[in-house]
Design goal:
Elements (H helix, E strand, L loop, with lengths): L1 H10 L8 H11 L7 H14 L3 E5 L5 H14 L17 E6 L2 H15 L6 E4 L2 H7 L2 H4 L2 E6 L6 H10 L1 E10 L16 H19 L3 E6 L5 E6 L2
Parallel strand pairs: 1-2, 1-4, 2-3, 4-5
Antiparallel strand pairs: 5-7, 6-7
Helix pairs in contact: 3-4, 6-8
The structure holds S-adenosyl-L-homocysteine and magnesium ion.
Length: about 240
């Protein structure tokens, strides 16, 4: 596919992660863990450096790779702007990340990776369970509001995650969704796609329509990585 060639060309310029983070990326790739692509990482870092979020909620941790990428970017952003003094749960600067994962094996591995890279498994707070239910149970009183939400879990459920993300954010907050192109399959004819995936694609299409129509946000749909939507809350 021509598109894949372009993507790979651009990704060939992307920098490797430093230290242990690169090992985590490589190991995840070898084990088929669907971590963010390299150019997705570039855009995520860019958005964090530009917007300087102090509190991020991630939906879909896997082994913690993207959370660690975001953490690093928050620390880099911290030298600039007003988030200089924001601390996480264990006193590191840069700000706070809370992340949600359903799969216990992955959750454990993620915590091991947080410990390895950040020196404490609690430097990023991991909540276990079905993301939609976990989000539903998160009250603003207990968890506060987030400046950024990164949605990267079950593709058929983005609409529900998004509504909860709206409840947990405020004007100016950014909501990002990964994998909106489902490896390009969403563009294919219905008849070429497995039934289960067809339902997921139908849901994804109506989700994309929904967020484009939503007047509370401004949304750009991007072909970066496996496709991403970036929405900014206008109200
Ligand atoms: N953000 C990660 C990759 C996440 S992959 C990174 O880029 O490094 C998607 C993850 O979502 C998987 O680990 C999967 O177990 C998890 N997931 C799938 N359905 C979920 C659900 N209903 N609730 C919470 N997590 C879910
Ligand atoms: Mg993804």
């Amino acid at each position: 596919m021509e598109f894949e060639r372009i993507n790979s060309f651009l990704e060939s310029f992307a920098e490797d992660d430093k230290g242990g983070l690169n090992d985590i990326y490589k190991e995840a790739q070898e084990n088929g863990v669907p971590v963010i692509r390299r150019n997705t990482k570039e855009l995520m870092k860019l958005l964090i450096l530009v917007a300087g979020p102090k509190r991020i909620l991630e939906v879909g941790t896997a082994v913690g790779y993207s959370a660690l990428v975001m953490k690093e970017a928050m620390e880099a952003a911290c030298g600039r702007s007003e988030n200089r003094n924001e601390m996480d749960g264990v006193g590191r600067t840069g700000g706070e990340i809370i992340t949600i994962e359903l799969d216990e094996d992955r959750a454990k591995e993620a915590e091991g990776n947080f410990e390895k890279i950040l020196g404490s498994k609690d430097a990023i707070k991991l909540l276990r369970g079905d993301a939609y239910k976990v989000m539903k149970d998160m009250t603003v009183e207990e968890y506060g509001l987030f400046d950024m939400v990164f949605i990267d879990a079950a593709k058929g459920q983005y609409s529900g995650y998004f509504e909860e993300a709206m409840r947990l954010t405020k004007k100016g907050s950014i909501i990002i969704c990964d994998n909106i192109l489902s490896g390009g399959e969403i563009l294919e004819s219905h008849f070429l796609v497995e039934k289960r995936n067809r339902t997921i694609h139908d849901r994804m299409r109506s989700f994309l329509e929904e967020i484009k129509k939503d007047e509370r946000i401004y949304t750009a749909l991007l072909s970066v990585g496996d496709g991403m939507s970036v929405s900014v809350r206008l109200a």
